[in-house]
Protein: Monooxygenase
Organism: Sporosarcina psychrophila
Amino acid sequence: MAYLLQVDFKMAGPFGDEMAEAFTDLAKSINEEEGFKSKVWTESPETNEAGGIYIFETKETAEKYLDMHTKRLAGFGVTAVNAKIFAINSKLTEITKGSIK
C-alpha cells in the first residue's frame, strides 16, 4: 500500500521560477530517497507558505523521510512544520485518475 505525506510550512520565498532554480538540486536528491515515488511541490506567495504532497511506498519510508526533512528544514530556520501521513485508497484513487506510481 502506498502512503501520502502532506507537508507545509511558512516560507518567505523564493517562489515560482526562482524557487524552481533555487531548489533544482534538492528536487533531484529527493528522487533518491528510500521508498520515494513522487512529489507535487506546493507554494503560496500570498500567504508565504510552501510544501509538498509526497507519495512513498510504505508508511515507514514516509516517516523516515519526514524525520529527515523536518531536521533539514530546521537547518533553514523553519521550525513549525505541519505534516500528516495518510494511507492511499488505490482503488478509489484510480477511478479519479490519481497517480501513485
About this structure: The mean pLDDT is 94.
